[in-house]
Amino acid sequence: MAQSNSAGRSMESRVGRNKQRYGASGERLVAGVVPLSADKYYVLVIKSTRRDAWVLPKGGWETDENTVQEAAIREAWEEAGIVCRIQRDLGTIPDSRASPQLPPEAPKALYQFFEVAVDKEEVQWPEMHKRTRQWMLYREAAQALSSRPELLEALNRSSVLR
Which tens digits make up the pLDDT trace of 36-95? Predict the structure, then answer.
C-alpha cells in the first residue's frame, strides 16, 4: 500500500512507462512545470537523477490521468515536493535532442509546460532522497538549463522577471 502525507498525496513516485501516453508520431507526451515564487523573481529547479544537472519538474503523462495539467501537478509533487496551482499554459515544446542524447528506452518527447504558483514546499516528498531543489534568479536558472533547450524555452515562455 502506498504511503501518503497528511494532505493525502502519495509519498511514492510512479516508475516505469507501462501507463505512458504517446502522441500520433510515437513521441512520449511529457508534462512539466515552471514553478515561480510569488514575486516572480525566482524559479524552482531540481537536480536530475540521471546526470549532475539542474532541470525543471517534468515527466510522463499517464493513461490514468484525465488531463495533462493533472500529470504536471503530480510531477511537481513527486520531483520537487511542491503543492502548486497552474497559472498559465506555456504551450508545447518539441524535443530537440539528437538521437544519441536520448536514453535508449525513451523515444523523443513532446513537452507541455505550465507556469505554476507554488503554494507550499513540503519538507518530505517522494523523491527527496534522490533530488535536491533550489530557487534561482532567471539568470542563474537560464545558465543552469542551457544544455536543455526545451527546458530553457519553457523558462523563457514564463513570466519570471528577468
Answer: 999 999 999 999 998 889 999 999 999 999 999 999 999 999 999 999 999 999 999 999
> How buried is residue 76: exposed, middle or buried, by Cβ count under 10 Å (0-12/13-18/19+)?
buried
CA distance 3 to 19: 20
Q: What is the pLDDT of residues 90-136, one digit of tens each?
A: 999 999 877 666 666 666 899 999 999 999 999 999 999 999 999 99
> Comparing C-alpha atoms, which of 66, 158, 157 is closest to residue 117?
158
Yes or no: say if 74 and 65 are a contact pair by the CB < 8 Å rule.
yes
Residue 68 backbone dihedrals phi, psi, to 5 degrees? -70, -30
Q: Which residues pair with 137 in a beta bridge?
A: 42
Q: Strands 109-121 and 28-36, how do they pair?
A: parallel
DSSP H/E element including 143:
helix 138-144
**What cell does 92 get?**
508545447
Exposure string of 7-20, with b = 16+ CB inside 10 Å and e = fewer, is eebebebbeeeeeb
